[in-house]
Design a protein that fits this description.
It is built from 5 helices and no strands. With 59 residues, the chain is mainly alpha-helical. It has one domain: 434 Repressor (Amino-terminal Domain) (Orthogonal Bundle). α2 packs across α3 and α2 crosses α4.
Length: 59
């Protein structure tokens, strides 16, 4: 979430850029559900970061 907010993106905008549903962004940020590696990779690509950065820092 920090990475998304630092870039000034809403969940909707990030979801659009990552080509995933907004609910996946919410689930990823809140750890409410298991998120696939595919989704993590798409989100990381949209943010311009390594997928491990999202997992390590809580994004």
């Amino acid at each position: 979430m920090r990475t998304r907010k630092a870039r000034g993106l809403s969940q909707e905008a990030l979801a659009h850029d990552a080509e995933v549903d907004r609910t996946w962004i919410s689930r990823l940020e809140t750890s409410k559900a298991a998120v696939s590696v595919d989704v993590i990779e798409k989100v990381a690509r949209a943010l311009g970061v390594d997928p491990s950065d999202l997992l390590r820092s809580g994004g």
